[in-house]
Prior knowledge:
Blueprint: H1 8-22, E1 24-38, E2 43-57, H2 62-73, H3 79-82, H4 87-111, E3 116-121, E4 124-129, H5 131-144, H6 147-160, H7 163-173, H8 185-188
Helix pairs in contact: 2-4, 4-5, 4-6
Amino acid sequence: MEEANKTPLEKEKAELNALIRKGVSFEVKDTEVVTEKRFFGLIRKRRLVEVTRKFTIEEPTLSTLDRLSAEWIELTIDETALKSDDAMVKARTMAHEHSIRCARIVAIAVLGVDRLKCSIKGGFPHWVEDTEKLNKLTELFARQIKPSRLHQFAVLVNSMSNMGDFMNSIRLMSTIDRTTTPIRIEENKKV
Length: 191
């Protein structure tokens, strides 16, 4: 009965929260090279085997959200180029660039903090992005996921980032909206 009394916005928020808590799993088919050793390892035979890999997109951490934002900023469409004489060429070029970027966005979301590796520099831990791991997963998604599904995953990552709640939290914590904000004397003086 309680579910029927909720407004559509409350229902949508409840669904989003359930999605964020559980995450979303999906499978991608891939091909792996398996090497069989024969005659005491002197002869090797390689064959292709189809494997299904399972991935999960979960709510991103702040470092992952920051990395995702860096990719989202690069998603730009030049409207004037699309209205030019060679619009189809420009559209295909943009489609290629942005499909790879969308695959990278999904890869970053899937890896989460696992996209980072720790190294020791000057006796202190230093976190750097594991570009090899990220590039392999990006290539897999670009090669195996269809554009419509890739678009769905990119939109899903955007939803799971919970950007609205995060930005509202930041807005509430900003110095402008705090009740204890000091009143500056310089602002009250008229020149």
